[in-house]
Specification:
Length: 286
């Protein structure tokens, strides 16, 4: 199941992707006659993702074909949702050669940072380059969406607490970071420095997350590419690791690292592409 958030009549509403268009979730009733939430974050925080997924798998996908749709070409995407409790990222997570994974010290831990919700924008929104910050980079990343509150979970339990996966573009003020490498969060925290969407794809739709390929794309050119398999800290480990030192809440986001950054300038168009995901695209202004 693929979910998105669309701008419709000045509102941001959650919708389900179908091959013939998007169906607004509040356009039909739940099996018990209740209404579905109008926003994706409500759906996640109210614990309704499992119910919706079960309905979808048990015939709901066919019922959607008989409901009114918003055509793909008319869809205007918003951020999947606003104001997540936490936006977490890890850095330097890929190796180029799978053989390097065998050399990783088992005592090593991920490099982490957090971003404020004020960085958040959605597909098609402009990345605004701040004045006097020098070089700005953008990085494409697979991103985990937490679906259930959890603490101290194991790697094997991680898939059960994840609502799904989406894509992100993570921007960094590289010169600011170079000035003070210990204060990475500052370089990551400027307004518009985090874009995510346009689809949330549930865990059951991805046969093996390790087979996904992530591309950082600048002005239509694939500049960097790597496979999730080549991560030092893979998605299920990442969820379990973070749950060891903080409570993860529904809607929390964890970026999993990038195959490589690109320098962005005024007029550029930067993208995250992952296999069959709909691309995440943002223009650059400044």
């Amino acid at each position: 199941m693929e979910l998105t958030t669309l701008k419709v009549n000045s509102e941001e509403i959650v919708a389900i992707y179908t091959s013939h268009g998007y169906v607004a979730l509040d356009s039909f009733h739940r099996e018990d006659g209740g209404r579905w939430p109008r926003t994706l974050i409500e759906l996640i925080r109210e614990g309704l993702m499992d119910e919706l997924g079960e309905w979808y798998r048990n015939g709901g996908v066919h019922k959607l074909a008989n409901l009114p749709v918003i055509p793909h070409k008319e869809a205007v995407f918003a951020p999947l949702y606003r104001n997540p409790e936490k936006i977490w990222g890890i850095g330097m997570n890929y190796v180029q050669d799978p053989a390097e994974l065998e050399l990783k010290n088992p005592d090593d831990e991920p490099v982490g940072f957090m971003k404020p919700s004020t960085t958040l924008i959605g597909p098609g929104d402009s990345i605004m380059l701040p004045d006097d910050c020098g070089t700005i980079t953008a990085e494409a990343e697979l991103t985990i969406v937490i679906g259930k509150k959890c603490r101290n979970i194991s790697e094997s339990e991680a898939p059960s607490v994840v609502a799904g996966f989406t894509m992100a573009l993570d921007m960094t003020a590289a010169d600011i970071h170079s000035k003070n490498p210990r204060f990475l969060t500052r370089a990551k925290s400027y307004d518009t420095f985090f874009s995510f969407g346009p689809h949330l794809i549930t865990v059951d739709e991805i046969p093996d997350v390790l087979d996904l390929n992530v591309f950082t794309v600048l002005n239509g050119e694939k500049v960097h590419q790597n496979r999730i398999f080549n991560m030092k800290y893979r998605p299920w480990f990442t969820v379990a690791f973070h749950s060891q030192f903080m409570t993860l809440l529904p809607g929390d986001l964890i970026m999993t690292g990038t195959p490589g950054p690109v320098i962005i300038r005024n007029g550029d168009r930067v993208e995250c592409r992952i296999n069959d995901f709909l691309p995440l695209v943002n223009p650059v202004v400044g």
